[in-house]
Amino acid sequence: MAAETVLFSEVCSTNFLGFEFGGRSYSDQLADAVRKTKKHCAVEVFRRSVKGVEVVYVQHDFGFLGGSLGCAEGEKVARAFEYGTAQGLPVVVACRTGGARMQEGTLSLMQMAKVSVAVEAHRRAGLPFVSVLEDPTYGGVSASYAMQADVKIAVSRARVGFAGPGVILNTMFDMNQARYDNDCPAEFQSAEFCLANGAVDVVVEQGDPLEATVANVAKALLRGAHGARSTPNVSFFEAAAAYAAPSEEEEKKMPDYTASRLMNRPQFADVRNLLFSDYVALAGDGQVGSDCCIEGGVAMTKGPDSVSCVVIGCRKGHSPGEMQKANYGMPAPAGYRTAKKLMKLAERFALPVITFVDTCGAWPSFPAEEAGQSEAIATNLTVMAGLKVPVVTVVLGEGGSGGALGIAMGNAVGMLSQAYYGVISPEGAASILGRYKDDDHKLKQFPKDCAALATAQSIYAYQLKELGVVDTVIYEDPDESYDNFPKTAARIAKFVQDSLKDLVAKKTDVVDKNGEKVGVVDLVAARYAKYRNLGKFVEMSPEERDTTVEAFLAAPSSRKARPPKNDYTPCKLVRYLATEVLHGERSRFMGLAPSKAPVETPPSPAATLPEPPKGQVTAKTVLDAEGPEAMAKWVRETAKTRVLVTDTTMRDAHQSLLATRVRTMDLVEGAKIAGKVLHSAFSFEMWGGATFDVSYRFLKEDPWERLREIRAACPNVCTQMLIRGANAVGYTSYPDNVVVEFVELAAKNGLDIFRIFDCFNDVDQMRVTIDAVRKVGKVAECCVCYTSDVLKSTIYDVAYYADLAKRLVEAGAHVIAIKDMAGLLKPSAAKPLLEAIRGQIPDDVPIHFHTHCTSSASLAAAIEMTRHGCDVVDFAVAAMADLTSQPSLNAFCAAMEGLPRGPDINYMALEPLDIYWMKVREMYAPFETGMLAGSARVYDHEIPGGQYANLFVQCKSMGLGDRWAEVLDAYRDVNRLFGDIVKVTPSSKCVGDLALFLINKNLHAADVLREGKVSDYPESVVGLMEGRLGFPHRGFPEEVASAILKGKPQLAERPSAALPPADFEKTKTELASKYGITEVTDELCSAALLYPKVFEDYVTFCQKKTAVAAAIPTPVFWYSFDVGQTCTITCPTPQKAKEELGGPFSRDDDDAKLDATITLKRVGPLKAGRMRTVVFDVDGAEQHVEVKQPAAEGEFDGPMADAADPTHVPSPMPGVVEKVNVALGQTVDASDELFVVSAMKMEVKVKPPAAGTVKQLLVNEGDKVIEGALLAVIA
């Protein structure tokens, strides 16, 4: 800085309010500030020269009370502007402040207003004001004169903003630093942040770069304010002296619009650097945005008679990377608003505006439209129309439509000879008007059409000159490029110089009576005349118009007939698929699917595997040929040399690991592989248990069809199911004839082995099932359900299990199964248990061992069972083994190699099956329990493996996931409360229900026996105590049953015996009538009797949504489609194809098409009412479905109250429903408080419009509502 004069040092701060707080006065703070800075005010004012430019310079001192704005500071700044106005000097204010000074109360706030009036007076004098934003600039200064400058220069990395981070953290984030950090934008409130968001014009480094920028800006604005005058010999541009008139060859060279896009041609930055000096880019729109395409600033022309001007142009770039950074020359709204800011600055300081156009068009994008692209361009047109300074425009390259015109309304317009300027690009016109037979034809014809349309639309400079759009054609030297274009540069300079000389000469200043310039009218009038006269048209009399219409009507039209409108009507299946795209629980499109969820079903290697040996004797061949007794003898004989195995992968394994969610199509492919690599297996467990109701409930497929398909897929191995005795595949007791019918149908549809159990080991509860199985000639495998520790328990010792096995054989068991449903049997217990049971049953009755790996010790237990003579052992293929599933079959086969009674199965031969299931399991990732390892804790809580996964999922869904350890303890305690019962479905479910119930209410098992502590119980627990599942062999503790039943009686006989027989024919008639089913099969009837509500929901789903859910590939069924994803769906019958797909699928014959290839083509944007158009391609034909997108989390999506309906109860305000004080059907008075709605700590009690009954209750506690939301209907 040069020598300076200090001004207004007499103005000093004082404690005029006598402010004091916290034992410290403002006077003391002022004294400390004076001692620290040797100043009496936080602002100093100087008259100084900045690189030769005389200015009034204001400097904040942060050392004086944080540079804050008080009355003395406001006075000094106001005087500085008044002094600058009086002396005709620019004002520069260097801000470094925390804001207004609170110790001076409201008067400190008023300094913002005081300074603002002084700033405006200085502005009216036509003098420049430059602010320098140093670190930090906050609060009242930022919100007043710091941002009122003509040009705002921020020091790099300075902090600039209104509310400081601490204020935002406290006010908006309740001092939650983590939330603040997460939401805080990158580089928040830095100078660079402000530049990117349009709040400042330029960012520079402190020191010499800052001084040079301040000087260049002030000099440019001052010279403009002093005005420029034209003389005949004025030379604005040195380059213009090298002007050479175009040669005849240059003038005759035909333009090619594609040349305008070449990256090596001169662009705005090249021309600017060659023709202008002291350029200061002033970025941003001055409000909220900046642009990477349109840029501009103040500069001086390079020439002997240089003048200040505002230069604006479109950036592009000479490399792909530069093009990308400049958004390929497509301006955003902020770019047009930046140009507007610069034009207004030019007008304020009487600077000519020179614009350089090179854009293919305005940015066509969502952000641009949201920011108001049309308004930004439109506003620029009116601003340019009224600018009172010369505007010269040069079209350098592309002149794309309104995007170009937004900075191109010059008084004079020049255009390079190879540029183009039009309403639409030639390619855009050809894509609309061109007609092509096929892609090959388009490839050849399209470029020709583009060239023809370019000429036809008259978009070239020579054509536009004839039309009056362009004033001068600036001929290019074809051999020049951006790095060396002296001839072209001279011609551009000559055009701009001549235009400026002409326009400056025309200026006529209009002066009002006070001597102030109020405008330059000739330039505006000339611009008006130029653009008002553009356009070609004819004027016709009424007679001529009528004659023309008659002639056109009489002549044949050349317009081609419109093709018939496409039929986009969706079929039933597509309507369902479209809904799932937006509403699916795990929709891939909505981002709800796991990140690595497979898109396709894994391929099956079944077709490539060798067939089973012909003539092989297996349990299946013996059963079919000789019956169950012969099969049992065969097993005993075979097992002397090799243990037999059952593969549980298709039932218990996925029930235990994947919440029973594996679908039929995946099981069937697995069965095809298993039938070939495990052809010597005893059986495949693949049905029963929870699979029956889950198929209907969650998978929307028929379990009977699953049985038939798996049977067909592996005809050489016995199929096996788990049946719950009198509970069949349900969770309650059924009439005996329902169970018998179920067994008969299962056998008819392909079931071989029925593993029968009772949840309390009650033989009487199993007799009906055993008899039914024996009657149909199938295998009755009866379970000894194992619990506790046989070596320690005084209830469940070896004698208990041996006696139970004996009674089961007497009841008709062909095979005895030891069902260790929780994996509690330890290896050391294998020998004594087997010896005890074998000692009580005939030698020809096989023993079959089933366990779970929850403890991780069960493989050892399985090996010990094998060593001590167990005939058959359950395993799962490795990819579906361990944790709560069964031990690994692969590991067992490998471990038993070379040992007596090995299974004689090569573990490597199992690899195709293992790899298949490994890939299948990936499709079911959401149903994994999250259990990463086994846990010996199972010996304490004794939860069955098949229940463990479901209980964990249930626990999480209730919001108790973080209390899982408490749930495990509660399960153990409830079991002990019940008297240490056998825990297997459905008794285990009752134990789990009560455990979750107690944890959810923060109670303990012991509270059940504390009078008044527990008021009610889950229905399943009450039914358990009533004996609806039967009774444990020792009964329930009397005091527990009494506490839960609360006077209800217990059943005195077997639950099923108390039920009347089902009337199958009546049920079929009712089902046919209720659902309109033409033929109600025995299987459907059975399902309806076992699960009435589940069956009803399934049938409703099939009728209203789709009946071929089972045919949808698994990745699509669980995760729906992403755009572009394709799948093939094969309907099972022509009738189903007709109902679900229609069209070419509608024939009921063998030629009817059964499979459809379906692709999600697009999901349209959100429309009114949150509707989207979902577009599918079905075998080449589009189908459109209108689907309402779900509301965002926390967004109200319910019905609105009708103000004209007196029965409607609306929400009085937006907020949360804190309390619901009524129930459906309740009678209320007009004074009753129905709801409490709260928002921002304000609560409003909602009363009914009149007395009545609650007919509808539409909200729950915790729901978010908006004003007018319908809460209830009272009538």
Written overview of the protein:
With 1275 residues, the chain is an alpha/beta fold. It contains 46 helices and 39 strands. Strands 10, 11, 12, 13, 14, 15, 16 and 17 form an eight-stranded mixed sheet that branches. The longest helix is centred in the middle third of the chain and has 21 residues, at 486-506. The radius of gyration is 44 Å and the shape is elongated. The two termini are 84 Å apart.
Task: Describe the secondary structure blueprint for this structure.
Blueprint: E1 4-7, E2 20-21, E3 24-25, H1 26-37, E4 43-50, E5 53-60, H2 71-87, E6 91-97, H3 105-124, E7 129-137, H4 139-142, E8 151-155, H5 165-173, H6 177-183, H7 191-196, E9 202-204, H8 208-226, H9 248-252, H10 268-275, E10 276-281, E11 294-301, E12 308-314, H11 320-325, H12 333-348, E13 353-359, H13 366-370, H14 373-386, E14 391-400, H15 401-405, E15 412-416, E16 420-422, H16 426-433, H17 439-456, H18 461-467, E17 472-474, H19 486-506, E18 509-511, E19 517-520, H20 521-532, H21 542-554, H22 572-583, H23 619-626, H24 628-638, E20 644-647, H25 649-657, H26 664-677, E21 683-688, H27 691-697, H28 703-713, E22 718-723, H29 736-748, E23 753-756, H30 763-775, E24 779-785, H31 798-811, E25 815-819, H32 830-838, E26 847-850, H33 858-867, E27 872-875, H34 889-895, H35 911-922, H36 938-941, H37 945-957, H38 964-977, H39 987-1000, H40 1019-1026, H41 1038-1045, H42 1064-1075, H43 1082-1090, H44 1092-1104, H45 1114-1119, E28 1126-1130, H46 1134-1141, E29 1155-1163, E30 1171-1178, E31 1181-1188, E32 1208-1210, E33 1215-1220, E34 1227-1228, ...
Parallel strand pairs: 5-6, 6-7, 7-8, 8-9, 12-13, 13-14, 14-15, 14-16, 15-17, 20-21, 20-27, 21-22, 22-23, 23-24, 24-25, 25-26, 26-27
Antiparallel strand pairs: 1-4, 2-3, 4-5, 10-11, 11-12, 18-19, 28-29, 29-30, 30-31, 32-39, 33-35, 33-38, 34-37, 35-36, 37-39
Helix pairs in contact: 2-3, 12-14, 16-17, 23-24, 25-37, 26-28, 26-35, 29-30, 29-43, 30-31, 31-32, 38-39, 42-43, 43-44
